[in-house]
Specification:
By secondary structure, this protein is α+β, with helices and mostly antiparallel strands. It is 21% helix and 27% strand.
């Protein structure tokens, strides 16, 4: 059904708690699984976006304003709106699997790893559109 929802594709969540937030698709499941019998994807997204930084800000202020709060979730394909953007997933792929959602401690560890990767990318200036908040 949805061949364009591939790993690395950036999408926007349209329903639920994270509506309007950008996510990157980690692992798509076109046919579904036993626990989720519908087309869905494992996604990692940004719950709280980094704030604007200027030259006047001190180093401490810059560190605080460039923090990112990530989330991980299983999202139905019907609640995803794909974009034309993609993101490299080399470091995130191994962190997030279907087993990650079984235990809260694994979930927290995965979020920490994803946070580290997202913050590195943001500070390097890569994929700037992904790290900006959507304005309607």
């Amino acid at each position: 059904m949805a061949k364009f929802l591939k790993p690395g594709k950036v999408a926007i969540v349209t329903r639920g708690r994270y509506a309007g937030k950008k996510v990157v698709i980690i692992k798509p499941h076109d046919d579904g699984t036993k626990s989720h019998p519908f087309g869905h994807a494992l996604v990692a997204g940004i719950e709280r976006y980094p704030l604007k930084v200027t030259k006047r800000h001190s180093e401490k202020k810059v560190q605080k304003r460039t923090r990112i709060k990530p989330f991980i979730k299983v999202v139905n394909y019907n609640h995803l709106m794909p974009t034309r953007y993609t993101l490299e997933l080399d470091t995130i792929k191994n962190v997030l699997t279907t087993d990650t959602f079984k235990e809260p401690s694994q979930r927290e560890d995965a979020k920490k790893e994803i946070k580290k990767v997202f913050e590195e990318r943001h500070r390097a200036g890569k994929n700037q559109w992904f790290f900006t908040k959507l304005h309607f």
